[in-house]
């Protein structure tokens, strides 16, 4: 169930439906990434005005265990040829997203990753 909820949210968000976040995030949502605000409303506003809102998101893999769901994807912001490799970690509680962590890495030149980034 947690995996399905996060996958649905990711798919909707990636297609431009940023309103999908409001019913899915707990009001006391906790963000662990530096510079990003906690709290549902503050985080949604921050995300809507960030480069991720206009980016193309290409999901590569999903790992789910218990209350945690991890998404590994390629984020391509407008004008960025290589983009970013992102891992989001979401913790759910009572069917809603309670916490978020992420790891973000610029995708290097192809000659630096002979086995591919994804």
Produce a short descriptive summary.
This protein is of the alpha+beta class.
Descriptive report:
- The chain has 118 residues and is α+β, with helices and mostly antiparallel strands.
- Helices cover 22% and strands 40% of the residues.
- It is built from three helices and five strands.
- A five-stranded mixed beta sheet has the order 1-5-4-3-2.
- A hairpin with a 7-residue loop joins strand 3 and strand 4.
- The longest helix is centred in the N-terminal third of the chain and has 13 residues.
- The radius of gyration is 14 Å and the shape is globular.
- The two termini are 26 Å apart.
Secondary-structure blueprint of this entry?
Elements: H1 2-14, H2 21-24, E1 25-31, H3 40-48, E2 56-65, E3 68-76, E4 84-93, E5 96-106
Parallel strand pairs: 1-5
Antiparallel strand pairs: 2-3, 3-4, 4-5
Strand order of the largest sheet: 1-5-4-3-2
Globally, the shape reads globular
Any low-confidence stretches, pLDDT <50, length ≥5?
A: none
Taking the alpha carbons of the first and last residues, their distance comes to: 26 Å
- Structural class by SSE content: alpha+beta
Mean pLDDT across residues: 95
Number of strands: 5
| Strand/helix succession | HHEHEEEE
Which descriptors apply to this entry?
118 residues; alpha+beta; 5-stranded mixed sheet
């Amino acid at each position: 169930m947690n995996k399905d909820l996060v996958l649905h949210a990711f798919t909707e968000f990636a297609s431009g439906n940023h309103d999908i976040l409001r019913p899915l995030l707990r009001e006391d949502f906790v963000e662990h990434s530096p510079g990003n605000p906690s709290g549902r409303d503050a985080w949604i506003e921050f995300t809507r005005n960030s480069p991720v809102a206009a980016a193309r998101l290409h999901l590569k893999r999903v790992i789910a265990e218990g209350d945690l769901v991890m998404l590994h994807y390629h984020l391509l912001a407008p004008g960025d040829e290589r983009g970013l490799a992102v891992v989001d970690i979401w913790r759910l509680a009572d069917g809603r997203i309670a916490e978020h962590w992420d790891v973000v890495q610029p995708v290097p030149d192809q000659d630096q990753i002979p086995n591919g980034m994804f």
